[in-house]
């Protein structure tokens, strides 16, 4: 067979892809919006280091708070520049780790920043250099491990790929070999997160035109295998691996254009949404891996981001009625709390430190069962939680 035909056949599932993606069920829009707001609220917390992953998630969302996003990007840039100490000579400074550097580059792509300047070239060169060091370490180690881990190695490849940068074939071969030789482990178990991140890198690479047909064929086969391993890792409850690896796993399914009609996809999304409603997603890193999924996107979509015509409609605070909606299973109720004699609220707001933070999605059944809507002896704690979950 002609090499070009073989290449086309291997790429076919990807070419045919973005028609029907692994979608989320209709009627989840309030749940998605509350997750959007949850991440947006994180950007307000000046006591925490800004997280590039949170920024990427907000940028991949269908709704934005553009001014806040610009401010957060500025904070990210400042924090990133601070990483190496200015009191240490440049050649002795510790470089940011592969994963952090990669996430920073993903954030810059999510902002559609021009990389054709000294700052851009420096960052890209730095990441290429870092990946070379990782590759050398794999050669050196009998166990074939990189300096950080294969998750970060994959993030590095993905970041260069979405910026349209060509990556050294040797660097790619190390990742391909690791996938083939089942090296993506987390402790002693298969790391579905790492499989998914490597898969996202392969999905991006398979769309580029830099590489030889042999390498593209290897990449496409690796992508198919990763997808199969992820599907095989699905539990009877629907999670891929565990519930925390499921967001990245579904990103991978989205990136490979998996059909909505596939039961694996429907079951996976149902498990994710169920866990979300139960407030199981609390780790901001995982929440930021989940949000793109809820908008039907994956990190591979960063490669084609245009940053134009974005909806600047995400507003924090209680003033917007839609921000006060709480979803309950498949249906949805809207609760407007009107407190006429706000003694309990005064008690809460006078001592904000006593207000416990509400879990990510404080389920509305708790709100209802607590009697928050009819009980005149409403307790401070209940009201605080109810109000903060509605913000
Ligand atoms: C690699 C990895 C590890 C490595 C990290 C060190 C190394 N040599 O690379 C090791 C093996 C040590 C590890 C340990 C654990 N991990 Co881990 N880990 C990951 C993985 C696959 C990638 C993290 C990464 O490199 N990110 C890229 C860099 C740039 O981002 P980062 O924020 O700097 O990453 C750091 C943190 O993520 C931290 N870290 C790693 N695991 C965990 C877990 C928790 C709860 C926290 C707070 C931090 C943390 O270490 C990373 C490297 O410095 C993620 C998968 C994912 N989806 O994120 C799971 C993941 C984050 N880990 C998880 C878990 C459960 C654990 C352990 C509790 C496992 C255990 N039973 O011992 C421990 C806890 C470690 C801790 N710090 O508290 C869960 C977290 C689930 C949750 N509740 O949110 C994840 C999502 C995997 C999963 N699907 O279950 N982990």
Automatic annotation (TrEMBL):
Family as reported in the entry's similarity comment: Belongs to the eukaryotic cobalamin transport proteins family.
Q: What is its main location?
A: secreted
- GO biological process: any one? cobalamin transport
Domain of life of the native organism: Eukaryota
Family matches, as PANTHER family: TRANSCOBALAMIN-1/GASTRIC INTRINSIC FACTOR, TRANSCOBALAMIN-2
Gene Ontology cellular component terms for the protein in this record: external side of plasma membrane; extracellular space
Which positions are annotated as binding cyanocob(III)alamin? 148-152, 193, 242, 289
Q: What is this protein called?
A: Transcobalamin-2
Disulfide bond residue pairs: 22-265, 161-204
The entry describes its oligomerization and partners as: Interacts with CD320 (via LDL-receptor class A domains).
Write the signal peptide boundaries.
1-21
| InterPro entries xrefs | Cbl-bd_prot, Cobalamin_Transport
> Which keywords belong to this entry?
Cobalt, Cobalt transport, Disulfide bond, Ion transport, Metal-binding, Secreted, Signal, Transport
Its function, per the record, reads: Primary vitamin B12-binding and transport protein. Delivers cobalamin to cells.
Q: Which GO molecular function terms does the record list?
A: cargo receptor ligand activity; cobalamin binding; metal ion binding; molecular carrier activity
Q: Where would you find this protein in the cell?
A: Secreted
């Amino acid at each position: 067979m002609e090499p070009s035909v073989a290449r086309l056949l291997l790429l076919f599932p990807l070419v045919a892809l973005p028609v029907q993606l692994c979608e989320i069920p209709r009627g989840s829009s309030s749940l998605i919006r509350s997750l959007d707001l949850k991440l947006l609220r994180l950007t307000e917390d000046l006591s925490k280091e800004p997280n590039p992953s949170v920024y990427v998630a907000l940028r991949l969302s269908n709704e934005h708070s553009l001014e806040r996003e610009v401010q957060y990007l500025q904070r990210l840039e400042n924090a990133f520049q601070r990483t190496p100490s200015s009191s240490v000579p440049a050649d002795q400074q510790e470089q940011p780790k592969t994963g952090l550097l990669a996430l920073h580059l993903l954030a810059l792509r999510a902002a559609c920043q021009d990389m054709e300047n000294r700052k851009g070239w420096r960052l890209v060169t730095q990441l290429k250099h870092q990946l070379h060091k990782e590759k050398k370490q794999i050669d050196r180690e009998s166990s074939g491990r990189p300096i950080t881990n294969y998750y970060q190695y994959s993030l590095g490849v993905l970041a260069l790929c979405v910026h349209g940068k060509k990556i050294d074939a040797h660097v790619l071969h190390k990742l391909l070999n690791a996938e083939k030789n089942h090296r993506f482990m987390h402790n002693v178990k298969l790391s579905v997160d790492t499989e998914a991140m490597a898969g996202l890198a392969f999905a991006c690479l398979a769309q580029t035109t830099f590489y030889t047909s042999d390498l593209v064929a290897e990449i496409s086969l690796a992508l198919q295998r990763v997808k199969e391993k992820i599907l095989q890792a699905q539990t009877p409850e629907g999670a891929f691996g565990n519930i925390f690896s499921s967001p990245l796993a579904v990103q991978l399914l989205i990136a490979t254009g998996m059909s909505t009609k596939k039961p694996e996809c429907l079951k996976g999304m149902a498990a994710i949404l169920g866990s979300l409603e139960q407030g199981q997603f609390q780790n901001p890193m995982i929440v930021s891996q989940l949000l793109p999924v809820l908008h039907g996107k994956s990190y591979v979509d960063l490669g084609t981001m245009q940053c134009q015509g974005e909806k600047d409609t995400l507003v924090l605070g209680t003033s917007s009625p839609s921000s006060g909606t709480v979803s309950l299973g498949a249906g949805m109720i809207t609760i407007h709390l009107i407190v006429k004699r706000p003694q309990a609220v005064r008690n809460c707001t006078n001592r904000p430190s006593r207000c416990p933070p509400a879990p990510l999605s404080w389920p509305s059944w708790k709100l209802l069962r607590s009697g928050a809507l009819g009980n005149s002896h409403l307790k401070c704690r209940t009201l605080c939680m109810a109000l903060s979950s509605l913000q």
